[in-house]
Amino acid sequence: MSEEPLLTVEGLTTEFTTDNGVLTAVDGIDFEIERGETLCLVGESGSGKTVASESITRIVPTPPGEVTGSVTFDGQEIISMSESELKEIRGGRIAHVFQNPQDALNHCYTVGWQIVEAIQTHEPNTSKQEARERAVGLLNDVGVANAAARLDDYPHEFSGGQKQRVMIAMALVTNPDLLIADEPTTALDVTVQAQILNLLEELQEEYNMSILFVTHDLGVVAGIADQVVVMYAGKVMERGGVHEIFDEPSHPYTRALLECLPGKSRSAEGIPGSLPSPISPPDGCRFAPRCDYAVEECRAGDQPPEEPLSESHAVSCVHYQQGYDPAVIREEVVQEDGATTGGVSSD
Length: 347
Fold this sequence. Notes:
Among the domains are: 102-175, no CATH class; 251-341, no CATH class. The protein has helices at residues 49-56, 83-87, 101-104, 111-122, 128-141, 147-150, 160-171, 190-207, 218-224, 242-247, 252-259, and strands at 7-18, 21-33, 38-42, 65-73, 76-77, 94-97, 178-182, 210-215, 227-232, 235-241, 306-308, 314-316, 333-334, 340-341. It has 11 helices and 14 strands. The longest helix is centred in the middle third of the chain and has 18 residues, at 190-207. An 8-stranded mixed β-sheet has the order 6-7-8-3-9-10-12-11, with helices on both faces. Residues 7-258 form the ABC transporter domain.
């Protein structure tokens, strides 16, 4: 097995030309995904998570979009690939599961027809009968009961959770090395959400996949992530192992997100304020206008460079630079039993 990461993203920037100016949805972000690892891209709606995930395989519409930077997948540079070269990877070695299966599935065709089409598109020498047999196996793999009989049902005959299982089955057609899952549980109730998350974990082990999981819900992250990248307004605010992020949240934005979890101090009202305009973002730290700890230096220049807190943990905040005291942010949180902790438990 290669020691190189499966996916390396460096300086990824995605801009859209609009009537009002250039909108920068993703602004020079970096991250890596190891083989067999789950990395969660986290942040509020509008933080640039979905655009970042779609930029990796260049499914962002061009124009008006333009993707620059470097995306290296298994040693191959994706950004500079021709469309014909990219087709060998997109949908093959890298598969997407999108947020809303209701829109992603074609309601004019049976789910079996759609899975068979995906199989024969990637494996044109596969007969229809062989493809149908594989489709039944894939539906069984993702937990669709009575899969052989349901193959000829239409999407409207499936529940929301079952539709998402069908979408996952279609993504697994090519046995991908990387599965990009964009908010795959957002529209599902808590019970079905847990089932889908457990399914992804089981499939990851069975298929030896890496997963890029996009979500706004840190509660979901705690159960599935190996690594976490926290995004805000197109920038990375913090990155680290899942336990580092939950036990030692270091950026004020990360802490605010954790405080929005059920039962926490901001669970009802959320984070005051709103995200800045991606056309004219503020100087300095993007989060400064909403930050309780912002000082004058936070509002000048560019986004602060990431300061390493450990080998795998880094934060983009001036309070961690030399001459500042991060204790202002990393104050202890008093628990109900009187004990104190610097963060929020991921258990």
